[in-house]
Specification:
By secondary structure, the protein is α+β, with helices and mostly antiparallel strands. Helix content is about 20%, strand content about 25%. Strands 1, 2, 3, 4, 14, 15 and 18 form a seven-stranded mixed sheet that branches. A seven-stranded mixed sheet has the order 5-6-7-8-13-10-9. A two-stranded antiparallel ribbon has the order 11-12.
Amino acid sequence: MKRLLYTLAVVLILSPLTCMAGGKKSYIIGFYNLENLFDTVHDEGKNDYEYLPDGGNQWTDAKYEKKLKNMARVIRAMKDENKVWHAVLGVSEIENRHVLEDLLAEPAIADANYQIVHYDGPDRRGVDVALLYRPEVFQVLESKSIPFDFNSTKIEFSLNKEEQDAFRTRDILMVRGMLGDEMFAFFVAHLPSRIGGKGNDLRSRGGEIMYEESMRLEKEFPGIKIVAMGDMNDNPTDDSMAVYMRGKENLSEVGPEDFFSPFVSMLKAGYGSLAYRGEWNIYDILVCNYNLAKAPKGGLRIKPIVKKKYYGRVFHQPFMTQQDGPYAGQPFRTFSGGAFIGGYSDHYPTYILVSNK
């Protein structure tokens, strides 16, 4: 797939990000897969043995500290470009709350004052999702961890009953609160893997769970604005997002029971947040409900952020990108071929802008 590179010359709507006076408000909402942010201590019940000093990755304190600094550098770089911290940032592939506390203590981002919403989940590999938020702009009212289940009347699953009972994956996080003076709910997901070319039905169920929970919230809190985000292990054109989340490419297509999916058009244009076998994909997705996509004048609404055309942003800079070798031009990851190379993540972060301007 042809890839269109972002550069610092990309036209961003930066002015609204810095002006919060007179009732005019703008917020950055984003997601970042931190690629196996593990500490060096074994967590009981988690399969974290590769990420121990004597494990397969020889995961030492020095490597862990390098990883923390790298993740903080990316978050800081987004702030520097946008002139404002993310209001909320969903993250995935984190081992526990402790690693997030260590991350948020990094000098590069400590002054953001991020707080954490996290639940320990049942994933067999021991990774969870979480939400980082700035309490100055987002006040949490409710949160819960939503387990994966097979309670679908529309999806035919490939796993039998015994396999379903034994299946473990990441929970989906839901956080509801007030962004400024408007009610929002954020879903953070890391849907089941594509390993072995499988799991389309499982990812579809993940999308269906988020959609069902979103419709429940809309019924209970009319007018609530919803953003679902995560490493979906699917492109926005795949069934989990396009069918079961009812994600629409164009704002004109979005009805009251639909979601706007801004990364569809970007994927088609050649943008990508990760590469696999030379093909670019956008698995790091954010979608927003009708109430946010088509908010009336004066309400927070998703805004174009790249070239005054695209409503999403895949963020990367040269330091986050492999500069040479067979993977040149792709995300500069932590490990390659089993060797520690000191990179950042195998995913680029993504985000959207919401504003009442």
